[in-house]
Each structure stands twice: as C-alpha cells, then as structure tokens.
Amino acid sequence: MSTPERPLSVGGDIPTGSIEVLSASDPGDIRLRLKRDPGPDVLAIGYYHFRAAGVRGRRCRFRIVDVRKDAAERLAGREDYEDGWTGTGPHASYDRRHWFRIPAAIDGADYVFEHVPEHDVCYYARWAAYPPDRLLDFVAGCQGSPRLRVGTAGRSVQGRDLDLLTITAPDDTPDTRRRACWIVARQHPSETMASWFVEGLVTRLLDPHDPVAADLLRHAVVYVVPDMNPDGTALGHTRANAAGANLNREWIAPDPERSPEVHAVRTLMERTGVDFACDCHGDEELRCNFLGGPLEIPSRSARLDGLFHDFERAWHDASPDYQLGHPYPGGAPATADLRMAWNWIAERFDCLSVLLEQPFKDTAWRQNAALPWSPERAVRFGASFVDALHGVVGRLRP
Q: What residues have CB less than 8 Å from 159, skipping those under 6 apart?
C-alpha cells in the first residue's frame, strides 16, 4: 500500500503523457484507462505514456481496463491478423532515454503487466516515448554540419513550429540536377518509432565520413519534417492533431484551420517539386517493416512499379530488417485513397512515394523477447534507408 513514508503516485501529466488513473492506492492493483483523441476517428485510442513514482522494489501490477473495446476497432480486412495488444508489452524507462520491454498479457477485457522497478521513478509507454525536448536537442546537436539547414515549414493548430531539415552537399556542382526527396514522420504522434528512424537517417546523412551518404547528397536534396503533428505529440494523442484531424486523411484538400500542418508541407512540396517521398508510420498489429508503394494510384505506371520494387530490393540488400514479400495488410485496395500522404504525393508528382510502417511488436523472423523492435533497431533501420535511396536516386526520373 501507499504510505506517508513512501507515497505512490501514478499519472500522465508529463511531456507526451496520456492515461486516466482510476485507482493507484495499492501498487498491486493500479487501474488505468486509455484516453481517446478528440475528433471522429474511431481508431484514435490506444496510446499511453505515464510516470510511476515511489515504486522502487515494489511489485507493481498495472491494469489498463477495457482495451478489448479498442482492439475491436480495426482497419478493414485485418480479421485474420493478431490484434495490437496480443503478444506485446510496454516499454519502460528510468531516465526517459534508454527503454526496455516488459511482458504483458490480456486478462479478459483488460491489459495487465507487472514490474518491480529498480528505481523510485519509472516511465511506461506503449512504445518508447520521443518527447519534444528530445527532438529539440537532436536538431540543435546537428547544426554544426555544413550539409544541414534548419527552417520552419509552418505552424500547427496551436502555433508550434514544424521543423524542416534541408540536407544536401554544400557545393553547387552536382553531376545531375538534384532530386527533391521528402521524408515526413509522426503524422500519427503515437507512432514514435518514426522519430527514432529519422534520427538514424539524419545522423547518417550528416556523417562526413560516410561515402554512400556523400554520394547520395551529390544527387539529392533531402527535406525532412521530423514531426508533422507537434500538437498531437505534446498532447499525448494517438492519431489526431489539436483540432481532432487525422492528418493522414487530409492531403487532398487540407483546411488551413483544421490541418494547417498538411497545408504548409503541401505548399512547400509544390515549390520544390517531389521526386521521392517517404511517409513514416508505425503499425500496432504487423510483425514486419512494411512498405506501401504507388501501385494503386489512378496514374499508376510500369515505371513507378519498377522503381518501387527496385527500392524494396535495395533496402532488403542493405538491411535484414526489411524483408520482401509482405502483402498489403488485408489486401491492396482497387484504388488508392488519395487522402493519404504517400498516395496523394505519388499521384500529384508522378513520383516514387512510399509508406513505411514499422512494428510496435517485433519482426516475425527475428522474435526476441529481450530485444524486440526497439529504438536502437529503429535508429539502425533509419541509417540503412540511405543505402536504399542511394540505390534508386539516379533513376527517379527518366
């Protein structure tokens, strides 16, 4: 029990935090409930991130109630997939920088995990948190590179900056016209693996000793928006921005009031053109790193089909964490949904545009209870992306 000498405190009032505390007087029976985002998206629930204090040496049992209601709402065609709560467990951290996984199980309608923390304070999240201060520190630490310029793509609903990193070789004599390659991440703020991925990608692009990165940047300008939804990140949302919009359903006609984030980035893309794009997400159910390509857009073509499969093979050759042969989850649609970023970009610019989904769980071919899909692996996977893009950059346009 909580005592005056060692009070127990559990709460989500922390950066990127989200949880409702129902009961936390007994460490052996801490009861919690997920919070739903504002807006109409029925899938906009599932993220949690909270802090527990006064827990060192105590066997704490956390019960998140009624997650089965969340698990019942799924994307179409996924009835045969394992739901996002089965076979996984939360990430935990004592210092908010190094995260480890602990096991969990479904108990009736609830999600339950136990932990005996080694320190007084421990943080728990559905996947390793990536709060705004980490992004600020990362961007600030990159500024010494002559390859990098840091700007602002626009502002969010609540007035937060959308950082824009522009990365290219500092000279002005490329062999060919430099291709405009866009990387956007965190349209859905709970999919934090996308930010760790971007760290690995940007770090490698700025490495002056990396010959592949140097050669890529002779042929490309890489534009990176590391957090498309800074309001959702700050507010601890699962999928929505501050206005309740799912940004990845706003790309056909973004409203400057409801989805200014998409409106701003789209406007910049019109100025630069787009020769390649990657929209970085995470998926709670999949056990693979999945790529979607421009294969169902109205203007689909053999050229784009060939580029997509060449990019896939190049990434497979660069990293065992990308495996070929994973079909579109639930079956590919007959026609692409152009409200989604990767589809709209491919159709508008007739370019190779891909969707990346990293797993919340682990890859099916490398299941490791101690080291499932982790920030460290996401960082390395981001670094391997450089090889994949380098493999096709010379053929992005005829």
A: none
The CA distances from residue 159 to 231, 259, 268, in Å, are 8, 12, 18
Which pLDDT tens digit goes with each residue over 247-267?
999 999 999 999 999 999 999
Q: Where are the domains positioned within the chain?
A: 9-125, 132-395
Q: Which burial class, exposed, middle or buried, applies to 250 when counting CB atoms under 10 A from its CB (0-12, 13-18, 19+)? A: buried
- The mean pLDDT value for 196-207 works out to 98
Distance CA 263, CA 250 (A): 9
E strand map for 143-298: 148-155, 161-167, 179-185, 220-225, 276-283, 290-292
Residue 45 backbone phi and psi in degrees, to 5: -155, 150
- Integer-rounded Cα Rg, in Å, for the chain is 21
* pLDDT band per the 50, 70, 90 thresholds, residue 77: confident
Rounded distance between C-alpha atoms, residue 189 and residue 15, angstroms: 13
Which 3 state secondary structure label does DSSP give 280?
A: strand
Q: Are 72 and 42 in contact (CB under 8 A)?
A: no
Phi then psi for 66, rounded to 5 degrees?
65, 30
Quick check: 91 and 99 in contact, CB under 8 A?
yes
Fold classification of 9-125 is Immunoglobulin-like (2.60.40)
147-153-155 Cα angle (round to 5)? 145
Contacts of 13 (CB under 8 A, 6+ apart): none
Quickly name the fold that domain 132-395 has. Answer: Aminopeptidase (3.40.630)
pLDDT digits (tens, 9 = 90+) for 156-198: 999 999 999 999 998 755 455 899 999 999 999 999 999 999 9
Task: Give the tokens for residue 114.
Answer: 């136990």
Distance of alpha carbon 216 from alpha carbon 207, whole angstroms: 12
Closest by alpha carbon to 206, among 389, 386, 395, 16? 386
Please, are residues 194 and 186 in contact by the beta-carbon 8 Å criterion?
yes
9-125 and 132-395 have identical folds:
no
CA–CA separation, 229 and 163 (whole Å): 11
Q: Shortest CA distance to 313 belongs to which of 387, 225, 395?
A: 387
DSSP 173: -
